[in-house]
Amino acid sequence: GRALRCPSPPWGRATLYRFMAVLGAGSLPFTPFLFPRFGGKWGRVKGTRGELLPHRKRTVTSTLIHQAHCEMGRLLDGEWITADLGTDAQGRFVRRATTFRGKISADGSSGFPAVAGRYHLYISNACGWSHRCLIIRRLKGLEDAISVSFVQPFMGMENGWTLAEGADAVNGKTKLWEVYVAAQSDYTGRASVPVLWDKETKTIVSNESLDIAKALDREFDSIAGNPSLHLFPDELQVDVDKMVAANYDPVNNGVYKCGFAGNQEAHEEASRALFKRLDELEELLGKQRYLLGQRLTVADWYLFTTLYRFDAVYYCHFKCNLKRIVDYPNLWGFTRELYQIPGVAETCNMDEIKQHYYTSHESIHPRRYVPIGPEIDFDQPHGRDRFG
User: Which is higher by pLDDT, 285 or 39?
Assistant: First the structure.
């Protein structure tokens, strides 16, 4: 590894890494007794600044611990393996691109026509990317047209996302990766949510939340309960795309870059970018009701799913603790307003959100207990109607 320059112990490097990660990144004065080579001439342990330390001050760096435990599992040629893709050379968390990018079209020209009862969503209540799709499905009135299976909150390395017995009424699977293999027998990559499944062709249409959200918003109007609502308005499409892109890397994905950073430098880089963007959004929302003015768009909902989870999870779990969202008057009011829009609160499940994050990420929280707080009142008056 990069942090420890020593031969692998006879019981395997992975076991050793797990042991050290559980102990924590503090000093290990007893290391020579458990792992003799670490204390002898072969042992070279770097300090947090990269220097070689004398035995009493030796530490295990965060890079080592991250490499040992940020293993979410993935498919390799259709076989599930308990190994993840890790960080880049600088210790930065890298989100991999989605691979199923089929399109649904109202006229059926794409090969996937917008037909009631044909499609099925695999969703996690905990996942912000899934939450976006669930909100749009609810706001558009598509609950009867598109069915849903919810994965369980815990996502382990052994099987990834799983489904309770009987939860998958379409394919009868108990592991999400089995759905991926059913669509493509030699699939390689992560088995992520959301997934939009076509019951007729028995394949995955898309596992990209943006594509799914656009389809729900634009292509199902003929069967939607609320066809006049458009969160991707044509006249604002360029501005929507720019706003979504501006928030994606520092905020939506930024909290993950903070939490899964492989070293101090990568964590600080991501944290500063995150709070710089939150400061900018706080200023913007002090001048107007929504991100693009007076009209609610998908850009607002994409930000909302991150803000809703921030204080309960990202602030503590991912160490994004420079400020809470409740410390930003405009962002906090904005979050409460969107939460209070009819139908949205029913898509929000804070219990499953907390259960997922605090129990699934062993590299960050190996003891896996779930905190009882914080107490957050999303129903208090938001005050955003002052903008008209």
Answer: 285
Dump pLDDT digits (tens) for 6-20: 444 444 444 443 444
Residue 134 · residue 347 · CB < 8 Å: yes
103 touches 110 (CB < 8 A): yes
Q: Give the global pTM.
A: 0.80
Q: What is the DSSP letter of 295?
A: S
Exposed, middle or buried by CB within 10 Å (0-12, 13-18, 19+), for 9?
A: middle
CA nearest to 227, candidates 235, 237, 216, 236:
216
Residue indicated by tokens 């031969």? 7
Question: Among 23, 63, 66, which Cα is nearest to 46's?
Answer: 63
298-309 helix and 128-140 helix, angle to the nearest 10 degrees: 130
- Extract the tokens encoding 111: 């090969």
Question: Which of 278, 248, 273 minimizes the C-alpha distance to 129?
Answer: 248
Query: Is residue 127 annotated as part of the catalytic site, yes or no?
Result: yes
* Cα atoms found within 13 Å of the Cα of residue 3, Cβ hemisphere only: 23
Counting every residue written for the chain, the total comes to 388
Cβ neighbourhood burial of 323 (10 Å; 0-12, 13-18, 19+): middle
DSSP three-state, residue 161: strand
Distance CA 50, CA 53 (A): 9
Alpha carbon of 78 to those of 70, 122, 170, 178, 184: distances in Å? 21, 19, 20, 9, 8
**What is the identity of the amino acid at 364?**
I
Among 70, 119, 122, 127, the active-site one is 127
**180 φ, ψ (degrees, to nearest 5):** -60, -45
Residue-level pLDDT at 97: 63
> At 337, phi and psi to the nearest 5?
-60, -45
Contacts of 335 (CB under 8 A, 6+ apart): 304, 307, 308, 325, 378
User: Residues 111, 113, 114, CA angle at the centre, nearest 5°?
Assistant: 155
| Identified catalytic residue from 256, 290, 357, 358 | 256
Whole-angstrom Cα Rg for the chain: 23
Query: What is the β-pairing status of strands 119-123 and 79-81?
Result: unpaired
